[in-house]
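Escalation from tier 1.

The customer reports that the assembly of two entities below gives different structure tokens on two consecutive runs. Tier 1 could not reproduce it. I'm attaching the input and our single run for tier 2 to review.
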Amino acid sequence: EVQLAESGGDLVKPGGSLRLSCVASGFPFNNAWMVWVRQVPGKGLEWVGRVKSRTDGGTTEYAAPVKGRFSISRDDSKNTLFLQMNSLKVEDTAVYFCTTGSGYHWGQGTLVTVSS
Amino acid sequence: SSELTQPPSVSVSPGQTARISCSGDALAKQHAYWYQQKPGQVPVLVIYDDTERTSGIPERFSGSSSGTTVTLTISGVQAEDEADYYCQSTDSGDTYWVFGGGTKLTVL
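Tier 1 run:
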């Protein structure tokens, strides 16, 4: 059974940093492109960024609102995806989901709240 | 433009057919995906590659595509289908995802 489990969400002050993790199981993580999507409670879905598999180059892409502040990485030895979030803004408050590149499997999400 | 436009809401009675549209220039060249999200739950992929139904999704769900518009059709709507539905595609370079604003389906 495929499982994705995010963690690391917290309350953080504007300008602060946070690192989210997503532990994957039940599929060959090293071959998967992985994506982060966020959702402000009560609002729509917003793509944050993605990382390709190492065999496909391991490159990352980011949405304009987070480019330069967020960084996606992966540790294939631990089947774990990361989202490093720096210079956080109030508008980054959301539930952050990790999902496979196909969009078929999603984690339960982790809540990030940016507030003073 | 990579924007996708959906109607904010659609309402139908049980047993009727619900059609949710999604429009955007990217859809002329890129595939569309549809997600169902019920309150407090994670999005579920119901349609991929415009018309393909994900395993385990009831046959009453179908997708179609014409030019820059894709449509999710739910035939014989049931109360359990009440949810938010999001279309998703990619930019012309197939680099990043773009979501529609979501459509709230209400079953009267």
